[in-house]
Write a structure and sequence with these properties.
The chain is of the alpha+beta class and 409 residues long. It has nine helices and 20 strands.
Length: 409
Amino acid sequence: MADDSTSVIRTDRLGKMFHIFERPGLRFLHALLGERFGFHREFWALRDISFDLARGEVLGVIGRNGSGKSTLLQMLAGTVSPSVGTVTRLGRIAALLELGTGFDPEETGRRNVEFTARLLGLSSEELALRQESIIEFAEVGEFIDQPVKTYSSGMVVRLAFAITAHVDADIVIVDEALAVGDAQFQFKCLNRLDQLLERGVTVVLVSHDLQLIKAYCNRVIYLKGGLVQFDGDCETGCELYLRDTTPATRAVSAGSLESRQDSLAFGNGHGRIQSAVLVGDGAERGYFVSGERVSLDVSLQLFEPVRCPRITLVLRDARGYNLYAVNNSQLGLTLVVDGSGLIRVRFSFVADLQDGDYALTLRLDDALSEKVQVLLDKRVGVLSFRVESPRKRFDAVVNLHGSAEVLPA
């Protein structure tokens, strides 16, 4: 395994350029006569990508389709050469890239397991010990001895992930592997990912599932137009991505992202979340007993006329998962604006949660319709609080108030 004190992946001003030909015949002329006649135009899929990745780090890569995510992973894995810059790797890499990359469709699943595992560095002895575990994990049944070309897309990705997960790699690179497959297999993959992280394996993960990114990654790179738009904490990176990709947000000036009292905030400036206070038993609080009713007093300021102001409360756990969200419209409440543009509203909810730390996000919109909203202001992690339980009444996170009864024999 790679030494703890060194980077296992280092990129320096990495870039990838492709030749784009307007007509197929121009590609032939380019190959025949060379570049000096200008039969092509240059397209830079990635430019100036520089970062270090330490052993045990979990890096998420996010961005819209076409932003260069897959190209970056291919260069990290060594399957695509950079046009400029360098990639330095230390340790064995196992990469799960495009669906079934490297599989021979004419060969059986079993033979592809053998080929791929050997390519990833398993010895004959190691393969003999792990082959049946790989096949069992993939859940392809009797199709393991059928040609891969007869497999469904889900079967292909299950087989590919199974191989990757059973190789003693220092670095695991995964490109949208969990986007294919049923829920049961996704849980199985996540459990395997937890095991890899416990071993200190370095992971690079591409996913459009921001909850997954925030739950497993301790760092995120947000790519936009082939450039690094952000490199840092997952909360900020994911919020920047949402700001740029949510249609209602893109339809207006998104405003600048800034820090306000340790929270993230952005919007078009036509309204502002001025303050938010957590209250329990009539006093400002930062901790609650599980099952206790919590109040949240929010003050809003509108600077421009807003047709339908709407405030949304989002509750997240420590890993960034959204546990609950509600807005005043869903609660049947119309916000009242005074003559100075001030709005005051109180949310109330029961903190029937497991022991742990939680955070609140607030979003102020002009709700033009159910599907179209103009973002005025959003405060991410505006408040945090802790829940403690003197007596354990349920497992996991949220109490759904289940019941049980003895049935007659």
